[in-house]
Amino acid sequence: MTDAPASPTPDESDVQDVPAGVTARRGPLRAGQRVQIKDAKGRLNTITLLPGGEFHSYQGVLRHDDLIGGPEGVVVQNSSGHDYQVLRPLLNDFVLSMPRGATVVYPKDAGQIVQQADIFPGAVVVEAGVGSGALSMSLLRAVGDHGELHSYERRAEFAEVARGNVESFFGGEHPAWSIHLGDAQEEMLRVHAPHSVDRVVLDMLAPWECLDAVATVLAPGGVWLNYVATATQLSRVAEAIRESGTFTAVQANETLVRGWHLDGLAVRPDHRMVAHTGFLLTARRLATGEEALMLKKRSKVSEFKPEDVEAWQPSDESRWTPQALGERPVTDKKARKAAKEARLQARRARAAEQGVDPRTVGHDTDDQSR
Ligand SMILES: C[S@@+](CC[C@H](N)C(=O)[O-])C[C@H]1O[C@@H](n2cnc3c(N)ncnc32)[C@H](O)[C@@H]1O
């Protein structure tokens, strides 16, 4: 690698009001930062750059020192002359390679959520649960440094995974972010004054349990977006919202993204794709006391018997378990392991921001105090 480090702006670490995360995304590669390295066979690895560090594969050894201080977008050779392409992970890549507790919102859905929930710079946004923090990162980017994102999570280990991931991605704490531990439906009522929140985004098993709380905190006209994995959850939350009479404009959709194979004349859709992730359902808060406008041309409501509804939406709450809805349970042990890894990556990213040698940053010295 011979290029001088290409920094498109002056040294941004000296500039006070650089938006959160910018220094981690441009300029020369720094020790403590994560990079993606891809070999000629397309194999991808994400590594944290450490002074004196080495990436070992059966093809030889790649020295981290050959990358630190240089630009991204380079092709470097390892000890045996094999080429590696080096890039910083984009948000999409970062989300797919970061430590996980709960299942993450995939990038294709995060983009739609930001758009359909109309998340704007400066907005006050409530999110629950925070899980691994994947969606939080997209929401934080959209609200910006002067917005507020309040993320609620009932499992402490997941909150730790999310905190580590978000700090690792932004290179430190994000000024717009607060995590609140506890059940969203109770905590958001404690934290927010009535009608003071612009947008609510829920990614959880039973969003209908939050209906009263969301109706209380959301401002008139505010958007409530639910991300759910199954059609039964979608139907239940839609009916609960309609029945409450406090929302309007209930809409649902899903997004399928089909990649394309581009190779000379062989230009066609990929053979495989992710067929299903989740459904998005949005609704708008009515002003208090207003009734939703009834369209004159209403679709004929289909007739159904109570047992049909019971089959589709059992009234016995104990049947709405994560397992029944196809969720894989995450053990405390697995969550703790992901939290530990996320915290380490966050410390290293912060060290990179501060110009501190990330090797001096070890595992879990201050874990319990945070
Ligand atoms: C699928 S995960 C969220 C993933 C997250 N959106 C992401 O992109 O990483 C669902 C999370 O909601 C949390 N949760 C479920 N019900 C909750 C509630 N009532 N209040 C707070 N958190 C809740 C769970 O503990 C879990 O961490």
Automatic annotation (TrEMBL):
<dbReference type="GO" id="GO:0031515">
    <property type="term" value="C:tRNA (m1A) methyltransferase complex"/>
</dbReference>
<dbReference type="InterPro" id="IPR014816">
    <property type="entry name" value="tRNA_MeTrfase_Gcd14"/>
</dbReference>
<feature type="compositionally biased region" description="Basic and acidic residues">
    <location>
        <begin position="360"/>
        <end position="370"/>
    </location>
</feature>
<dbReference type="Pfam" id="PF08704">
    <property type="entry name" value="GCD14"/>
</dbReference>
<keyword id="KW-0949">S-adenosyl-L-methionine</keyword>
<dbReference type="GO" id="GO:0043827">
    <property type="term" value="F:tRNA (adenine(57)-N1)/(adenine(58)-N1)-methyltransferase activity"/>
</dbReference>
<dbReference type="Pfam" id="PF14801">
    <property type="entry name" value="TrmI-like_N"/>
</dbReference>
<dbReference type="GO" id="GO:0030488">
    <property type="term" value="P:tRNA methylation"/>
</dbReference>
<keyword id="KW-0819">tRNA processing</keyword>
<feature type="region of interest" description="Disordered">
    <location>
        <begin position="1"/>
        <end position="32"/>
    </location>
</feature>
<keyword id="KW-0489">Methyltransferase</keyword>
<protein>
    <submittedName>
        <fullName>tRNA (Adenine57-N1/adenine58-N1)-methyltransferase</fullName>
        <ecNumber>2.1.1.219</ecNumber>
        <ecNumber>2.1.1.220</ecNumber>
    </submittedName>
</protein>
<dbReference type="InterPro" id="IPR029063">
    <property type="entry name" value="SAM-dependent_MTases_sf"/>
</dbReference>
<dbReference type="InterPro" id="IPR049470">
    <property type="entry name" value="TRM61_C"/>
</dbReference>
<dbReference type="GO" id="GO:0160107">
    <property type="term" value="F:tRNA (adenine(58)-N1)-methyltransferase activity"/>
</dbReference>
<feature type="domain" description="tRNA (adenine(58)-N(1))-methyltransferase catalytic subunit TRM61 C-terminal">
    <location>
        <begin position="94"/>
        <end position="261"/>
    </location>
</feature>
<feature type="compositionally biased region" description="Basic and acidic residues">
    <location>
        <begin position="329"/>
        <end position="344"/>
    </location>
</feature>
<keyword id="KW-0808">Transferase</keyword>
<feature type="region of interest" description="Disordered">
    <location>
        <begin position="305"/>
        <end position="370"/>
    </location>
</feature>
